[in-house]
Amino acid sequence: MPRITQRDIARLAGVSQAVVSLVLNNRTDATTRIAPETRQRVLDVIRETGYAADPVARRMVRQLNQIIGVFTYESVFPSTSADFYYPFLRGIEECAEQLRCDLLLFTSAPVTDGRRKVFHENNRLRIADGCILLGRDIPHDELARLNRENYPFVAVGRRDDAGGPVPCVGADYAAATRKLVERARELGHREFAYVGAGEGAESADDRMSGFRAGTRGGGRHERTAGRSAGETLDALLAAGVTTAVVEGYADGVALIRAARERGVDVPGDLSVVVTGVPAESADADIASTGFRIPRREMGWQSVELLAALLEDRSTTTLKRLLPCHFVEGQTLGEPRRDRS
Amino acid sequence: MPRITQRDIARLAGVSQAVVSLVLNNRTDATTRIAPETRQRVLDVIRETGYAADPVARRMVRQLNQIIGVFTYESVFPSTSADFYYPFLRGIEECAEQLRCDLLLFTSAPVTDGRRKVFHENNRLRIADGCILLGRDIPHDELARLNRENYPFVAVGRRDDAGGPVPCVGADYAAATRKLVERARELGHREFAYVGAGEGAESADDRMSGFRAGTRGGGRHERTAGRSAGETLDALLAAGVTTAVVEGYADGVALIRAARERGVDVPGDLSVVVTGVPAESADADIASTGFRIPRREMGWQSVELLAALLEDRSTTTLKRLLPCHFVEGQTLGEPRRDRS
DNA sequence: CCGAGTTGATAATACGTATTATCAGCGAGG
DNA sequence: CCTCGCTGATAATACGTATTATCAACTCGG
């Protein structure tokens, strides 16, 4: 019933608790010497008993635990956003495995208003050495507080500063979105529209800024909030738009569907590019053009960055931006002559 | 910037550390009394400083870490067996969340020969209060050692005893398989065959024993190892079998495909039932009849069982079997007259 | 045979919190 | 004046590990 402790190991090996600790940590200083046979005896007992140091106690004295926390602002294994999280988690796990770290999922954080909060009654953040933050959007005040408390963390997805620089690994939406626009321009397109919120979250800001860069400051902005795909389509066609840059994948699919239903040819009458195509498209009938977010790589690098932070707090490059991969779909083509 | 402690609070409020702790935990026993004004003074200082008790030190005192380990014998977030693990993990997470426990994924366990081992050089099993074991098959010696070391654990999937009873939460394959056979019998079937290994793993044993019970000890056994689906099909037809009970879903699909290619009608000429239909069939063209394994529920209950073990080691029901749900597909029907 | 140096191990302590035993002070009753 | 009972607070300790100071035993040169 009671947990095995160093004291137990010591008793079994006929040594003191201190020796067990020294052996365990493989200390070989000039000041701390241990006879080879004694060391072996201790190691044998450890192996036989399967003893492992209590991380909580270890954490009391040391600073590192070989445990990386993973905090998700939604549940970790959800049904709906499975496709969203899974690639991140794969990358995180793979890197953690290589670093010989365990992963602690903060499932104990209570869910209020449909989302978790890092800072609740008695948060257990400090059990882990540091933490990976995962979530569509992360409250600004939580990031600020993490910074204030000097807790090592890395956010997955680019984040603005919050009471100091926020370490993060994001995808370069701006460059990727700009590239999409320029590719359309090369095909002859001149009338662009950005479809989506275009603000609110960093990811939306970046896409929009990339769009602006590609259109040299021009282009329309069609918000989707509160509108049906059909209404958006009408607005686009009425404005003479030939290329729609759609923020969300779901919105993109809906727009293409609406166009098809009305006999509007895609990409003949309207080209549609999507800023974020899922790895495995669920809608096999629509091969949308756009770019793919390197989710697995982002997960991997976020752990790597966290490890760097833990090793050396003065790491310089706190923010990493990874390139997105272009997806050659079938929804971008030359515009009709009679329109441009 | 050293972390603020109860000692600091005590100094600021002009009391002892013990009083701070007592106030913090709102202790109001007859034995521990605190003057209202003193309590208020302490509370004020706590509020002003924004102090929060160090969860690590707190866990140090209470013996349980509120951490449940999850050990997977393959990687946790794989690409291939995603469908296999995901539902289990969902259930595990949901239950852990309710219990206010965190989940520790043992990603630090080195992978040797394509699989992880619980007991390796310096395993960190004891970091968690107990552990959930997840894997297609779990080495007998590992289970035995866990029992020998009196480490609290629960296996997902039924397991035979190994040096003592093995706590587990499984699916009742025997009952479900038997039911499939009996359902076929009601439709007029008399010639059955079990297709698959039928031994080796507990899950296969259970299916086979259910099959035997349903056929009253009769029925053929067609092993698939080293044979093509076509060969198996030939053997079945030659033996006059009208209902094939297939162990693996993939084998079932292959068998049905092979039959279609040869113009063998399913279920007209041959009924096929599958002992384990995935939640979302990837092969949409084949709606196979069989039963569904309650994976999410298994995950949930395994955590629940572990929690019970941790609370009271003398828990009686160490093994739980959950019912499987019948899936009404289109591969089971009445046998042709001219055959039976 | 003695002091110095070396080897190998231990006792003591710190980390921050929770709990228990103890203690000082005080009013009242004898 | 002494003791008992009560209140309110503190000292002491435990949790399990890491580290530092200390210590006993032994070797060796002189």
Keyphrases for this structure?
11 helices, 38% helix, DNA-binding, HTH_LacI (chains A, B), 434 Repressor (Amino-terminal Domain), six-stranded parallel beta sheet, homodimer, Rossmann fold, elongated, DNA binding (chains A, B), 340 residues, six-stranded mixed beta sheet, alpha/beta
Plain-language structure description:
The structure is a homodimer of 340-residue chains. With 340 residues, chain A is α/β, with parallel strands linked by helices. The first copy, chain A, is 38% helix and 16% strand. The first copy, chain A, is elongated and about 90 Å long. In chain A, strand 10, helix 10 and strand 11 (271-274) form a beta-alpha-beta unit. Chain A has helices at residues 6-13, 17-24, 36-49, 55-61, 82-98, 140-148, 173-186, 202-214, 229-238, 249-261, 295-311; strands spanning 67-72, 102-105, 111-112, 115-116, 130-134, 153-156, 168-171, 192-195, 220-222, 243-246, 271-274, 289-292, 319-322, 325-327. Chain A folds into three domains: 6-60, 434 Repressor (Amino-terminal Domain) (Orthogonal Bundle), CATH 1.10.260.40; 64-170 and 295-325, 3-Layer(aba) Sandwich (Rossmann fold); 173-293, Response regulator (Rossmann fold, 3-Layer(aba) Sandwich). In chain A, helix 5 crosses helix 11 and helix 9 (229-238) crosses helix 10. Chain A is built from eleven helices and 14 strands. Chain A starts with 5 loop residues before the first helix and ends in a 13-residue tail after the last strand. In chain A, the strands form three sheets. The first copy, chain A, has a six-stranded parallel beta sheet, covered by helices on one side. In chain A, strands 9-8-10-11-12-14 form a six-stranded mixed beta sheet, sandwiched between helices. At the A-B interface, helix 4, helix 5 and strand 2 of A face helix 4, helix 5 and strand 2 of B. Strand 2 (102-105) of chain A pairs antiparallel with strand 2 (102-105) of chain B, so a sheet runs across the interface. Chain B binds a DNA duplex (30 and 30 nucleotides) through residues 3, 5-7, 15-22, 24-25, 27, 31-35, 38, 53-54, 56-63. Chains A, B: It comes from Kitasatospora putterlickiae. Chains A, B: GO terms for molecular function: DNA binding. Chains A, B: Keywords: DNA-binding, Repressor, Transcription, Transcription regulation. Chains A, B: Residues 4-62 form the HTH lacI-type domain. Chains A, B: Residues 205-225 are annotated as: Disordered.
